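Worked Example 4.2. Consider the chain below.
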Amino acid sequence: MFLHIQPLALTNSVSLGKVWDAIFLWMMEQSAKAGQDELTLNRNYGAPVVGETHDGYLNDMSLSAIEKRHVYEALEAAMTQEDVQEGSFGGGTGMRCHQYKGGTGTASRVVSGDDGKQYTVGVLVQSNYGHLVDMSIGGVPIGRILAKEKEEKNKENAVAAASASTSTSASASAGRVDDGSIVIYIITDAPLLPHQLTRLAQRATVGLAQVGGRGIGRTFSGDIFVALSTHNIPREQLVGTTPSLRPPMQSFSVEAVRNECIDLLFSCVAEATEEAILNSLVGARDGFTGRLGRKIEGLPVARVAELLEKYLVKV
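Applying the procedure from the previous section yields the following structure tokens:
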């Protein structure tokens, strides 16, 4: 039986090809370890999926530092570790979000079916987008408030103003660099057909807009959403025969969620996407120092909590 292992990965822009190649080689090795012959392999293998965002501000991409061993270590960790790592881990190490340190974030929701089964909707993001003034949390314009506070502080302290010019600045704009990008993976075990998964992916926009406000979807931003279901594993290979010019017709069955109840999954995607982005910020709250000594602040979590309490938002 073929091993249905199709890894998804996240990395930086320059390492996309190297990560894709390493994952493909890893998949071939798993097939060999399972004792599959060449025909079985050729009838069943698939292509890896690798997403990327640009981390050139904090990372010296000219070094192209990611190697095959790093990818293999990540794959092994993904299959064995119990801890959920968020913020400055993996592909999210050099990423920025709303001019604070961003990176990797996750969240999930669980829904029940009338058959007693439970289905999970999980979201994984690599956040690397947005201006501070656009950030909203719980409907509160947190970004504008923090930007105003930072501006007032800089006016009072000329040294702080000079320092801020080398790290984060609420009003600074560098065009396509600041617009950045975000990759959102939506993974569920609910039975969905391809067109339903497309609809799920579109709903990630709702969650992204809850945090990014009017600042999302700019010309130079790369907003990439991918949705997949692990429920239906297509049995596309012929049974009892091998491919030929005119093989006998065969079919396989799949399950699908009824469209009149799919709104529940839409809500799950929107909520989990919003939470995953916020988790990427909270996970990176300690900030980060990258190449050339460049420093990026972490989200001031304590101050944000104070503001949310002030505006009666419970978290």
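The CA atoms of residues 70 and 76 lie 10 Å apart. Residues 167-173 have pLDDT under 50 and may be disordered. Compare this with Example 4.1 before moving on.
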